């Protein structure tokens, strides 16, 4: 492991900052305290700060040398609406809210990098430090892009990272191509004809149709999609009926769809509609589909991923980098930034998952041991991507 002295020196301070953020979690677009802390600290490092992008987003700008090139580094700031199960001193002080995904750590590591780079300035060009709100489901990255993030702060590339439980500390995963899946949701309303539970011949049973449909929807992945392509269609909700002896007139199914390739993604809604209409027609019912495309797939570009791997290798060593990690069917709104600019999103090992230390688990905690790794990675990346004149 190759960690610079200044970064080792800041480890205790950054651990304190991280634990403070952990104890004070804030949900999507409500990251007022976090954003204020971020802005105040960036300013104390002598970094120019813009606030209020996507409500609580903060961007820091640091220039060194005379070069006109620029890159952006991104961290997410929001917590999750869940109850923390840990009882250590820095556990959440807010009931029902928890930093269960490690965004407290991401924010801290980017602050640490900003501090180091502002002190050393051993690069040529401009670095933008993007602190985004609302990664968890609300698409804060998309709102920032829509509000002109890359017009206000023009960059040639953008980089992100996520801590990865289950990957040992000191290891990094990075590959060109898809790292995380596209994330869609659907609602299917099946309308039959309500009636007496004892007189089914007078009704059109929407429950029976819904049951047929749940199974049949699995054929989209298994029969309509090239087996080499990944696709998940999951029904996560079934709502219908209130009584033992009433056949409900309507059943509502809902769920999520995950995919990597846009062609595969685009094929799902029409297939769903075809199957729903067909099965409903067979039973004399009708179907209404609502399909919402949410986050796109997170797809790393080739050159920037090489750059990211070189920077990570300078910290953890080339042998500690997994160059072809199995992509996750989870989703990540950094994808919206990668749709605008080339870049790379890497995983940084958070260590073992004992005690439920998995993302979105009540027993999760960001591993403070990896703070110097993340800070060093950002510093190496900036110095490699924007090399100072020698
Ligand atoms: Zn998460
Ligand atoms: Zn996350």
Which descriptors apply to this entry?
single chain, 390 residues, alpha/beta, four-stranded antiparallel β-sheet, 11 helices, binds zinc ion
Number of DSSP E strands: 16
Secondary-structure element pattern, one letter each: HHEEEHEHHEEEEEHHEEEHEEHEHEH
Q: Give the termini distance in whole angstroms.
A: 26 Å
Helix content range of the residues, please?
25-40%
User: What class do helices, strands and sheet pairing give?
Assistant: alpha/beta
* Major sheet details: 8 strands, mixed
Q: What is the radius of gyration computed over CA atoms, rounded to a whole number of angstroms?
A: 24 Å
Average pLDDT, to the nearest integer? Answer: 97
Bound molecules: zinc ion
| Overall outline | elongated
- Portion of residues in beta strands equals 15-25%
- Sheet with the most strands: spatial strand order: 1-2-4-3-5-16-6-15
Task: Flag low-confidence runs.
Answer: none
Note the total helix count.
Answer: 11
Question: What would you say this structure looks like, in words?
Answer:
By secondary structure, this protein is α/β, with parallel strands linked by helices. An eight-stranded mixed β-sheet has the order 1-2-4-3-5-16-6-15, with helices on both faces. A four-stranded antiparallel β-sheet has the order 10-12-8-13. It has a two-stranded antiparallel ribbon with strand order 7-14. It contains eleven helices and 16 strands. Helices cover 35% and strands 25% of the residues. The two termini are 26 Å apart. The mean pLDDT is 97. The structure holds zinc ion (2 copies).
């Amino acid at each position: 492991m190759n960690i610079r002295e200044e970064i080792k020196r800041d480890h205790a301070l950054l651990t304190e900052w991280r634990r403070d953020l952990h104890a004070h979690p804030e949900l999507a677009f409500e990251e007022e305290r976090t954003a204020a802390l971020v802005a105040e600290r960036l300013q104390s490092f002598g970094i120019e700060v813009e606030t209020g992008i996507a409500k609580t987003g903060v961007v820091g700008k640091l220039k060194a040398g005379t070069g006109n090139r620029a890159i952006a580094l991104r961290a997410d700031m929001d917590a999750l609406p869940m109850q923390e199960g840990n009882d250590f001193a820095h556990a959440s002080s807010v009931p029902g809210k928890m930093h269960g995904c490690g965004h407290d750590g991401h924010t801290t590591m980017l602050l640490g990098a900003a501090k180091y780079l502002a002190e050393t300035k051993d690069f040529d060009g401009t670095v933008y430090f993007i602190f985004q709100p609302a990664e968890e489901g609300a698409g804060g990255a998309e709102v920032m892009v829509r509000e002109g993030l890359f017009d206000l702060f023009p960059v040639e590339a953008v980089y992100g990272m996520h801590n990865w439980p289950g990957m040992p500390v000191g290891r990094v995963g990075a590959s060109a191509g898809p790292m995380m899946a596209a994330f869609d949701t659907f609602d299917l309303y099946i309308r039959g004809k309500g009636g007496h539970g004892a007189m089914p011949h007078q009704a059109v049973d929407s429950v029976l149709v819904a049951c047929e449909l749940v199974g049949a929807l699995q054929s989209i992945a298994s029969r309509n999609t090239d087996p080499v392509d990944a696709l998940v269609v999951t029904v996560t909700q079934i709502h219908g009926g209130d009584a033992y002896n009433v056949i409900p007139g309507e059943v509502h199914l809902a769920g999520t769809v995950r995919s990597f390739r846009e062609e595969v993604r685009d094929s799902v809604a029409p297939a769903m509609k075809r199957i729903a209409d067909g099965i409903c027609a067979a039973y004399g019912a009708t179907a209404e589909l609502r399909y919402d495309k949410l986050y796109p797939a997170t797809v790393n570009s080739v050159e920037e991923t090489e750059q990211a791997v070189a920077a990570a290798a300078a910290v953890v060593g080339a042998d500690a980098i997994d160059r072809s990690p199995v992509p996750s069917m989870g989703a990540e709104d950094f994808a919206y930034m990668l749709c605008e600019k080339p870049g790379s999103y890497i995983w940084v090992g958070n260590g073992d998952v004992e005690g439920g230390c998995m993302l979105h688990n009540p027993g999760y905690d960001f591993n403070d041991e990896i703070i110097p790794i993340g800070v060093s990675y950002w510093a190496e990346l900036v110095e490699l991507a924007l090399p100072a004149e020698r």
